[in-house]
């Protein structure tokens, strides 16, 4: 059994990667062995291609403002592994992670030895850790679960939530989910449960068709953006996005988001529809003042995050085509007059050729790099994919970063983007005081 966090994390990371063994049978077997703790947790289930993490974060902040104790299960992490399992924004402690691992470890061995289902994958195991933690070690009033991959076969899909959310549907993880919007939507819609309300901000007609059909099949009331609830932008400024929201019972005016980008209005709208639904059907209250405060306090690491004002440095983990399009729109929305220098890295199992050509439309110069991660794409392949006349290849991202910081002028910005794993490495580097010389006289926040 485990005595240290190092041993625990080595065991977890040594398991089969997420998505390699899809299905919920191993989860169901292990949960039954320990009395189905997931049934004792009040949950919200959030799926979709982009915007899941932001939606979870809005909900967490709103319900914290009401005084509830709120758990969150998210992926991937940005700063530390423990962030995947949090209560009121505080990551699970190393001590509690070791305790939960010692409960879950025998279950992973038993399901392999006593059935023909095999060992659980890493993500399944982490999901099991969360169920033990939220039900035994740190019980919560409400826990918000973010889908890991797809929905139908995801290890989180063993919960029976109060309400489900599908933020949107776009092309991503095609190897696992299919090569069409229809097939991907079918996997996302797999989280819809019998009689459980489903909220969606999906806009693609093919995706909506699939979600509506599944809602009818499951006799679940569907709430779709633009139909049962609406969001109206009031513009933006340095404080962020301003908007009105309307649903059946909730009508709020001049709300503000710190998180920037027109796409964030949709994520916030999904969260507000959840608030309306839970207040209407489960009596979980949230006053307008609490909603406002929760939205205004919400920030999410690695999502158009301001890291330095002088020079202006922003990091963003846009890791698929739709996310990259949203990032370009946000750059143009907030910094239309700036020359943008881009430092970019991606994963080789993503549509990196398309993403490079999208992000470089906002760039006066683009530097293509790579980082230490098994799935990272080589900088040369990114360079070859780029059509920008001012492109540079530098496989050493630290070297590229230092050069770009030194060269970025007062009327320019440095945008560091691509894989969330890359952004996590950059963020860790920037926040490490030992690297203060990297930005020299810049104003790191």
Description:
By secondary structure, the chain is of the alpha/beta class. It has 2 domains: 5-297, Mur-like, catalytic domain (UDP-N-acetylmuramoyl-L-alanine:D-glutamate ligase), CATH 3.40.1190.10; 305-439, Protein-Tyrosine Phosphatase, Chain A (Alpha-Beta Complex). The protein contains 16 helices and 17 strands. The strands form 3 sheets. It has an 8-stranded mixed sheet with strand order 4-3-2-5-1-6-7-8, sandwiched between helices. Strands 12-13-17-14-15-16 form a 6-stranded mixed sheet. β15 (365-368), α13 and β16 form a beta-alpha-beta unit. α2 (25-33) packs across α4 (94-114) and α7 packs parallel to α8. The longest helix has 21 residues, at 94-114. The radius of gyration is 22 Å and the shape is globular. Mean pLDDT is 94; it is low at 441-445.
Helix-strand blueprint:
Blueprint: H1 5-13, H2 25-33, E1 43-47, H3 52-65, E2 70-73, E3 85-87, E4 90-91, H4 94-114, H5 122-137, E5 142-146, E6 163-166, H6 174-177, H7 181-188, E7 197-200, H8 205-217, E8 222-224, E9 230-237, E10 240-246, E11 251-257, H9 262-282, H10 288-297, E12 305-309, E13 312-316, H11 321-334, E14 339-345, H12 352-359, E15 365-368, H13 379-385, E16 391-393, H14 397-407, E17 412-418, H15 420-431, H16 436-439
Parallel strand pairs: 1-5, 1-6, 2-5, 6-7, 7-8, 13-17, 14-15, 14-17, 15-16
Antiparallel strand pairs: 2-3, 3-4, 9-10, 10-11, 12-13
Helix pairs in contact: 2-4, 3-9, 3-10, 4-5, 7-8, 11-12
């Amino acid at each position: 059994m485990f005595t240290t966090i190092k041993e625990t994390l080595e065991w977890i990371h040594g398991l089969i990667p997420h998505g390699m063994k899809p299905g919920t049978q191993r989860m169901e077997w292990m949960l039954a062995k320990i009395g189905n703790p997931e049934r004792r947790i009040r949950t919200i289930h959030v799926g979709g291609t982009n915007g899941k993490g932001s939606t979870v974060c809005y909900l967490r902040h709103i319900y914290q403002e009401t005084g509830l104790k709120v758990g969150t299960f998210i992926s991937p992490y940005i700063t530390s592994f423990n962030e995947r399992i949090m209560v009121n924004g505080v990551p699970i402690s190393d001590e509690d992670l070791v305790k939960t691992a010692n409960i879950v470890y025998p279950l992973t061995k038993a399901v392999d030895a006593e059935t023909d289902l095999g060992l659980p994958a890493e993500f399944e195991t982490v999901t099991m850790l969360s169920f033990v933690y939220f039900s035994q070690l740190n019980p919560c009033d409400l826990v918000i679960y973010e889908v890991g991959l797809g929905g139908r076969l995801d290890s989180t899909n063993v919960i029976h939530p109060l309400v489900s959310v599908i933020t949107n549907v776009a092309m991503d993880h095609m190897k696992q989910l299919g090569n069409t919007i229809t097939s991907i939507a079918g996997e996302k819609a797999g989280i819809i449960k019998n009689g459980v309300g489903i909220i969606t901000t999906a806009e693609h007609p093919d995706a909506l068709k699939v979600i509506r059909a599944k809602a009818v099949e499951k006799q679940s009331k569907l709430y779709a953006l633009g139909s049962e609830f609406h969001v109206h932008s009031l513009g933006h400024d340095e404080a962020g996005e301003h908007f009105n929201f309307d649903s059946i019972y909730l009508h709020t005016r001049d709300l503000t988001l710190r998180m920037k980008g027109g796409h964030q209005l949709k994520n916030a709208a999904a969260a507000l529809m959840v608030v309306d639904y839970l207040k209407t059907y489960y009596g979980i209250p949230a006053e307008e003042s609490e909603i406002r405060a929760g939205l205004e306090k919400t920030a999410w690491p690695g999502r158009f995050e301001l890291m330095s004002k002088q020079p202006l440095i922003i990091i963003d983990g846009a890791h698929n085509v739709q996310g990259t399009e949203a990032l370009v729109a946000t750059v143009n929305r907030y910094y239309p007059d700036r020359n943008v220098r881009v430092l970019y890295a991606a994963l080789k199992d993503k549509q990196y050729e398309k993403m490079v050509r999208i992000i470089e439309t906002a760039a006066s110069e683009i530097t293509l790099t790579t980082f230490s991660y098994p799935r990272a794409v080589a900088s040369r392949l990114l360079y070859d994919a780029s059509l920008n006349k001012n492109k540079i290849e530098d496989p050493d991202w630290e070297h590229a970063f230092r050069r770009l910081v030194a060269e970025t002028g007062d009327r320019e910005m440095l945008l560091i983007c691509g894989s969330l794993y890359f952004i996590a490495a950059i963020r860790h580097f920037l926040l490490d005081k030992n690297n203060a010389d990297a930005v020299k006289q810049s104003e790191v926040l």
